[in-house]
Amino acid sequence: MLRGREILFEFVPVGGLVRVSAIDAATGVEVTLSAPAGGRQADLERIAAAKLAYRLRRDGLV
């Protein structure tokens, strides 16, 4: 997906949900998603990274 790129993740609980942000360290591009609070962190990171990869490709940054 984004091999060799540093991705920063932020998890913020909001009621029964968690807001997940993924930020590309090189460009500062950020995407967010909301998911049930009981979701596994690894799964949420994978989904957020995929969304970030899509955004970077769409914007021609990778």
Care to describe what's here?
This protein is α+β, with helices and mostly antiparallel strands and 62 residues long. The chain has one domain. 29% of the residues lie in helices and 37% in strands. The protein has one helix and three strands; from the N terminus they run E-E-E-H. The protein has one helix at residues 41-58; strands at residues 7-14, 17-24, 30-36. A three-stranded antiparallel sheet has the order 1-2-3. A hairpin with a 5-residue loop joins strand 2 (17-24) and strand 3 (30-36). The longest helix has 18 residues, at 41-58. It is elongated. The chain starts with 6 loop residues before the first strand and ends with a helix. The mean pLDDT is 96.
Radius of gyration: 12 Å
Number of domains: 1
Strand tally? 3
Biggest β-sheet: count, sense, barrel? 3 strands, antiparallel
Q: Strand arrangement, largest sheet?
A: 1-2-3
Question: How much of the polypeptide forms β-strand, as a percent range?
Answer: 35-45%
Oligomer: single chain
- Span of the ends, CA to CA: 10 Å
Mean pLDDT: 96
Shape: elongated
Order of helices and strands: EEEH
Individual helix count: 1
Query: Roughly how much helix do the residues carry, as a percent range?
Result: 25-40%
Runs with pLDDT <50, length 5+? Answer: none
Class computed from helices, strands and strand pairing: alpha+beta
